[in-house]
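Exercise 7.
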Amino acid sequence: MTASRACSQGFTLLEVLMAAVILGLGLTGILVSMSQARKTMLASAYLETAQEVMDLGDMAYPLSDVKDPDDAQRGLDVRETRASELWDLVNKDVRMSKAQEEKYHGYTWEREWLNKNDDDEIDRLGGLHTVRVTVRWGDRRRSHGESESYVTI
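Solution. The predicted structure, written as tokens, is:
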């Protein structure tokens, strides 16, 4: 009776191995989920900053100020402009803080007139012009650059 009681106490090697496998699979799933959540949070932060840069560009170069679409200074086409330059145009008396400089570093804004040479399309749209606004960020020299854009009429 003591021999059978000694055998019934504790787990077999197979049970311990199965528990280790189940625990390992659970931990792996948790770590993968955490990694994906971190990626999503970073992407969200980049897109939020890109939206802020889009807003800065729209305030620095408002479409409502365009009188002549071909004007090189205040026309529809606006060259790629750093976010810090946009900030200076919008906030003439307020300097960027260090945190803002770091946040906007590497971000650029550009507006492109898409139907510039297509008078038929402009007529079809009732005299409206189509523009694309693009914000770029990241290290484009190493092909790690990202961008976000929208098209408006």
